[in-house]
Amino acid sequence: MSDYQTQLEQIRDNISQLDGQLLKLLADRQQLTNQVAETKIRAHLQVRDPLREEQLLIKLIKQGQGMGLTPQYVTQLFHVIIEDSVLNQQMLLAQKANPDNDLPLNRVAFLGDKGSYSYLATQKYFSRRPGELMEMGCQSFDEIVAKVESAEADYAVLPIENTSSGSINEVYDLLQHTSLSIIGELTHPVEHALLVAAETDISQLKTLYAHPQVFSQCSHFLAELGNIEVKPTDSTSAAMLKANELKDPAVAAIGSAAGGALYGLTPIKSNLANQKENHSRFIVVSRKAVNVPLQIPSKTTLVMSTVQKPGALVEALLVLRDNQINMTKLESRPINGNPWEEMFYIDVEGNLQDGPMQSALESLRGMTRYLKILGCYPTEEVIPTRVAAASALRQ
Ligand SMILES: C=C(O[C@@H]1C=C(C(=O)O)C=C[C@H]1O)C(=O)O
């Protein structure tokens, strides 16, 4: 071994040791933040404390500068650390409020197989939760919902909207008729890559396999590609499986690089989506609604149909405004069998137990033809606390 190699190995050993220590410190920090959660449960305090976060960040940015670490680096690092701490605390509070939901095995139905975006979202959502995960890949949204309704599965993870291709109508329509409740949500980045099983390059490709939603999210890239046959599949994982089976230099699948790796596929081009910030939002549904503690930020989803008179929807929305309730999404879908009538799906910030929410629901019940609460669930989005580096350095 050359001197350089020996030297490099020694330095790398030291780095690995430090990384191990960093991990140990992060685990110790997690223990302490879990203790904070216990105290908050007893004291009925909100999980999130923006002032504490701001003071913490200001102090850390200043300390970091003294050690040669940039404010951007320190801020980014601690946003991740705090996000994890907040999500873990939220989970602990939610667990305490729903002791019956602590299952040793969580049987979860989702679209596709290993490697699909739904699979990756399922892994992410349940990784923080106690109990083992039993994956139940399904071939259609109908099958997924039926699995939970018939108690073959405990939960389903369903994609509901995407930042490029918009709402997933099929899932909205299923929500209209199911007795299941929304108990959680999460967003997951969708990073489409061109995945191949054989040595090749873009110019040799003749056939592309992907889910139709993926084709619409990558339409600009496909238009640039020109004369290529696009073959729709039931799921992203089915597309990957196809590419893996064919091992043909003329064939590629579109999906995530992480998912593709599970099928031995190599990404030859990434960032294929029209919108560079491409995220999907998923909902988690179960047979039983959850109890969301007031200390956790939450959302409530409603579905309603208004009476047939001018301004009926506006009037319903004014009820939300009058109760200071913030609407985060409004979606409309046709009602089967009633041409030109619509079901409105509304996501609002707030807990079902809140006074303003209760009074808004009471008013809405009086003015709508149909109103159903699809669920009240914890908000998974932890918006990072921002501090200007200048304000940290001024302290
Ligand atoms: C740990 C706490 O809970 C939250 C997480 C924080 C953290 O991880 O440092 C800080 C403030 C809170 O938003 C706390 O309140 O101290």
From TrEMBL:
CDD domains in the record: ACT_CM-PDT (cd04905), PBP2_Ct-PDT_like (cd13631)
Gene Ontology CC, one term: cytoplasm
Reactions it catalyzes: chorismate = prephenate; prephenate + H(+) = 3-phenylpyruvate + CO2 + H2O
Domain Chorismate mutase: 2-93
Entry GO MF terms: chorismate mutase activity; prephenate dehydratase activity
EC numbers, comma separated: 4.2.1.51, 5.4.99.5
Pathway: Metabolic intermediate biosynthesis; prephenate biosynthesis; prephenate from chorismate: step 1/1; Amino-acid biosynthesis; L-phenylalanine biosynthesis; phenylpyruvate from prephenate: step 1/1
Keywords: Amino-acid biosynthesis, Aromatic amino acid biosynthesis, Coiled coil, Cytoplasm, Isomerase, Lyase, Multifunctional enzyme, Phenylalanine biosynthesis
Pfam family, any one: CM_2
PROSITE patterns the UniProt entry points to: ACT (PS51671), CHORISMATE_MUT_2 (PS51168), PREPHENATE_DEHYDR_2 (PS00858), PREPHENATE_DEHYDR_3 (PS51171)
Functional description taken from the UniProt entry: Catalyzes the Claisen rearrangement of chorismate to prephenate and the decarboxylation/dehydration of prephenate to phenylpyruvate.
Name of the protein: Bifunctional chorismate mutase/prephenate dehydratase
Organism: Bowmanella dokdonensis
